[in-house]
From TrEMBL:
Residues 36-365 form the PORR domain. It comes from Cinchona calisaya. It comes from the Eukaryota. Pfam families: PORR. This is PORR domain-containing protein. Coiled coil: none annotated.
C-alpha cells in the first residue's frame, strides 16, 4: 500500500513536470515573423528633429552658469549625435540660443559663447508650470511603478534613467519625492552608489490598470459587466499563421491578471505568467508619455518586474497588442492601441511640454524663412536695379 502511494505520488510529479516542460516548449516555440509597420515607424521618425534640439538644449543648460563656449559644444557633436556643425545647427534653429563673446580665462582671447535665449527661458517657465499642474499625475505614476515591482522598491538611478519616458522632471528625486513622505522613502544618495526608492504605503486607488479602468467604464456606460481584456488587432495586411491565431484566441480567454496582483504564485513558464507579463508591459507603455519605450530600457527592469531574459519575444508574439520598431537601430516597444496610423491618440497631459517646445522651434523656423525671403527679395531688387542701369547706359 505504501509502495502504491509513492508510485502514484511520483507519477503525479512526473506528469506535472512533463506538462510544465510542454507548456514552456509551447510558449517558447510560438514565434511570429517580424513585420515592418511603416506608420508606427513614422511616428517615431516624426519626433527625431525636436529630440535632437532637446539634447543640445539639455547639454547647454547642464553647464555651470548655463553657458558654454561654442567650440566646446562643437567637440561634443558625436556624443550628441548631431550630424551638422554647431554653427549650422544654430542658424537652422534660431530662437533657442543667443551668442556673445567672452573670455574663457581672464587673460585669454575672447571667444563665442552660447546661452539660452529669452524665448527658451520663457519655455522653461512654461515647463515648470506644466509639471506643477500635473504633479498628482506624476506622483501616481511613481506609485504605480513601485506597486508593480517585486518588493515595492526600485533603484533610484533606474528611475532617473527613465524619467524622460514617463515625464518626470529632472529634480523629481530632490524636490518632488520629499513632498510625499506618505508614499515614498528615498534610501541613499542617487548617483553615489546604491540608492533606492521605496513605497511607504499602498494606495488601492492606484492599484487599477488602464485595462481594468477601461472595463469598469464600459460596464458603467452599458450596464453590463465587462471583464478586463486586451485590445488585440492587427493592422491591414498583417497576418499570422493559423496555429498562432488559435493559441492567441485561447490565451485571450484566460482571465486577465492585474499587474498590481502578487505574481509570486505563478509558474515562470505558464500561460498565466505570460498573461501577467503582457499586462505589466501594457501598463508600463500606457504610463509612458508616448506609449512607447526603448526595449533596452525595459530590460533594465527584468529583476524588478520578474521578466525573463527572453522578454523581447513577447512583443512579436503578441503583435496585435504591441509593435517592435527597429527605427534608428534601436528596438522600441510600441502600444498599438494608442496610435491611429502615425498619430498618437492616447495623449498624456505632460505632452503639452513637447508641444510648447515644438511651437518654439516652429517660431524660429518661421522667422528664418521670413529672413531668407527678405534677403532673396532684396537681391532680386538689386539685380533689377543693376539691369535697369545697364539698359540706360546702353
Amino acid at each position: 500500500m505504501h509502495f502504491n502511494t509513492a508510485s502514484h505520488s511520483t507519477s503525479k510529479k512526473l506528469s506535472t513536470l512533463k506538462s510544465c516542460i510542454q507548456l514552456r516548449a509551447s510558449i517558447s516555440s510560438l514565434k511570429v515573423a517580424w513585420r515592418k509597420d511603416p506608420k508606427l515607424d513614422q511616428a517615431i521618425d516624426n519626433d527625431k528633429q525636436w529630440r535632437l534640439c532637446a539634447r543640445v538644449v539639455k547639454e547647454v543648460l547642464n553647464e555651470p552658469g548655463q553657458v558654454i563656449p561654442l567650440r566646446y559644444l562643437e567637440k561634443r557633436r558625436e556624443r550628441l549625435r548631431l550630424p551638422i556643425k554647431i554653427q549650422t545647427f544654430l542658424s537652422r534653429n534660431p530662437g533657442l540660443f543667443d551668442t556673445y563673446r567672452d573670455r574663457i580665462r581672464p587673460k585669454s582671447d575672447s571667444v563665442e559663447f552660447i546661452r539660452a535665449s529669452n524665448r527658451l527661458r520663457q519655455f522653461l517657465e512654461e515647463e515648470r508650470r506644466i509639471y506643477l499642474e500635473n504633479e498628482p499625475l506624476i506622483v501616481s505614476k511613481l506609485c504605480k511603478l513601485l506597486m508593480m515591482s517585486k518588493n515595492r522598491v526600485v533603484s533610484a538611478d533606474k528611475f532617473v534613467e527613465v524619467k524622460r519616458e514617463f515625464g518626470f522632471p529632472n529634480d523629481f528625486l530632490v524636490n518632488l519625492v520629499p513632498k510625499y513622505p506618505e508614499y515614498f522613502r528615498l534610501v541613499g544618495a542617487p548617483g553615489e552608489g546604491k540608492s533606492y526608492l521605496e513605497l511607504v504605503s499602498w494606495n488601492s486607488v492606484y492599484a487599477k490598470s488602464v485595462i481594468e479602468l477601461r472595463a469598469e467604464e464600459e460596464s458603467r456606460l452599458t450596464g453590463i459587466k465587462i471583464r478586463p481584456s486586451f485590445n488585440w488587432k492587427l493592422p491591414p495586411g498583417f497576418f499570422i499563421k493559423k496555429e498562432m491565431r488559435e493559441w492567441v484566441r485561447d490565451w485571450l480567454e484566460i482571465p486577465y491578471i492585474s499587474p498590481y496582483d502578487d505574481a509570486s504564485r505563478l509558474e515562470s513558464a505558464s500561460r498565466e505568467m505570460e498573461k501577467r507579463n503582457v499586462g505589466v508591459f501594457h501598463e508600463l507603455l500606457s504610463l509612458s508619455i508616448y506609449k512607447r519605450i526603448p526595449v533596452p530600457i525595459l530590460g533594465k527592469f527584468c529583476e524588478d518586474y520578474r521578466f525573463s531574459n527572453a522578454f523581447k519575444s513577447v512583443f512579436t508574439r503578441h503583435s496585435g497588442i504591441f509593435y517592435m520598431s527597429l527605427k534608428g537601430g534601436i528596438q522600441t516597444a510600441v502600444l498599438r492601441e494608442a496610435y491611429k496610423g502615425e498619430e498618437l491618440i492616447d495623449r498624456d497631459p505632460l505632452i503639452e511640454i513637447k508641444d510648447k517646445f515644438v511651437e518654439l522651434l516652429a517660431e524660429g523656423h518661421r522667422w528664418r524663412t521670413e529672413q531668407l525671403d527678405l534677403q532673396r527679395k532684396m537681391i532680386e531688387k538689386d539685380m533689377k536695379l543693376v539691369a535697369t542701369r545697364e539698359t540706360e547706359l546702353n
